[in-house]
Amino acid sequence: MGKQEIYDAEWYRKKFKKKGSTVMSAADYQKHISKNPLAGKKKSTAKDYMEQELKDSKLPYVRELRFSKKRRFRFDWAIQTVICKIGIEYDGIFAAKSRHTTVTGFSKDQEKTNLAQAEGWVVLRYSPLNYKNMMEDVLEVMANLSK
Known about the structure:
Layout: H1 3-18, H2 26-35, H3 46-57, E1 61-66, E2 74-80, E3 85-90, H4 103-118, E4 122-126, H5 134-145
């Protein structure tokens, strides 16, 4: 059994233990994933896509950057170079625990964006409908700021 398979089996047990459901044995879990090749595999998400785009671009980026000393706000990703400071946010409005769909959460996001802009950051926000435009937007901002 490989390391990833062990991790998946442990994750599966923990997930169902929390819900109070019957716990599947490691052997049963292995049978389950052998019959269902996608079981136990992480689904690709918009955030995964965005992260891969940043990696492929070879731009110097950081995940979860705390950009201000005033508040504990963090960007999902940040690109900070001599010519620019770009904060990138993904608002996952379809997630079960999305704070972006509540009035309080949306207001905190606005507060975060306003603080970042006041401190000289360009903030790019994305949703499930427009996240594939991220790299085009980043390159456009960088080109405009380098003029």
